Amino acid sequence: MLKSLSIGLLSTAAFLPFAPAFTSSASAQCVMLDVSNQLAIHGSPTPSTQQNNVGMTANGGCVGGAAVTTNSQTAVTPGTATQIRNSQSTITDGMQGVPNVPGIGGPTIQIPVNTQVDVYSPALDPTFMHRFSGIPQTNMG
């Protein structure tokens, strides 16, 4: 019994390299990518306000398309920083003009990437040195 099971598994394993020929190919879908970077370097001890509002919509199936949006916001200020971004991307009629072939098309892949960096810098804070007692203040003038 064990010998026949081993021969059966070995026979099956011999056909594995040909398995892709018997399966359907992967469908070419659409991709939506939204990349946003927000950097705030400020002299206020209050954290900055950073918002990234992203909307991505796709109607129906889609083949081989891409929608890419990018954004970069940089603030360098002695005060507080406010960075707000609103982005809306839409793919419509993704299958228009494509023959109705089974297995082609599919849901759109949506990839939002958002990096927010908030840095307090004492070098930008005009009141930083005033916070320490015992340090003589000079009057420039």
Give a short summary of the structure.
The chain has 141 residues and is mostly beta strands. It has helices at residues 2-14, 19-22, and strands at residues 31-42, 49-58, 66-77, 82-91, 109-120.
Account of the protein in words:
With 141 residues, the chain is mainly β. It is built from two helices and five strands, in the order H-H-E-E-E-E-E.
| Topology pattern, helix = H, strand = E | HHEEEEE
Low-confidence stretches: none
Number of E-type strands: 5
**Can you give the mean pLDDT?**
79
Distance between the termini: 101 Å
Number of H/I helices: 2
Strand-residue proportion: 35-45%
What shape does the CA trace take?
rod-shaped
Largest sheet entry: 3 strands, parallel
Compile the SSE list and pairings.
Elements: H1 2-14, H2 19-22, E1 31-42, E2 49-58, E3 66-77, E4 82-91, E5 109-120
Parallel strand pairs: 1-3, 1-5, 2-4
List key phrases describing it.
3-stranded parallel β-sheet, 5 strands, mainly beta, 141 residues, single chain, 12% helix, 2 helices
